[in-house]
Write a structure and sequence with these properties.
- By secondary structure, the protein is mainly β.
- The chain is built from no helices and eleven strands.
- A hairpin with a 6-residue loop joins strand 4 and strand 5.
- The radius of gyration is 13 Å and the shape is globular.
């Protein structure tokens, strides 16, 4: 199974980015797909997750600014990030799980919020 992310980059505070993740190599539809991030010197943390039935979870710092959604293609997920702040700067990782915990990870995409 391979997860490929895209959409990261440099954006000014208040700007928006949309991350995409496509998983290939699985005959199953993942129960949960999510986005994690890791800032320099910090542990990797959950940002948002979406489960079968489109139940979503967000961490408090991004709630109301970020939106996670599944794509029409099987095992694709997006993260729309609005009103970005410098503290959102991190490497963002896509994850996918057949159960409630991640089984697979993407390689990461850098998001930098700076003026």
């Amino acid at each position: 199974v391979q997860l490929v992310e895209s959409g990261g980059g440099l954006v000014q505070p208040g700007g928006s980015l949309r991350l995409s993740c496509a998983a290939s190599g699985s005959i199953f539809t993942f129960y949960v797909m999510g986005w994690y991030r890791q800032a320099p010197g910090k542990q990797r943390e959950l940002v948002a997750a979406i489960r079968n039935g489109d139940t979503t979870t967000y961490v408090d710092p991004v709630r109301g600014r970020f939106t996670i959604s599944r794509g029409d293609a099987k095992n694709t997920v997006y993260l729309q990030m609005n009103s970005l702040k410098p503290e959102d700067t991190a490497v963002y990782y896509c994850s996918a799980g057949l159960g409630p915990s991640p089984d697979y990870w993407g390689q990461g995409t850098q998001v930098t919020v700076s003026s």
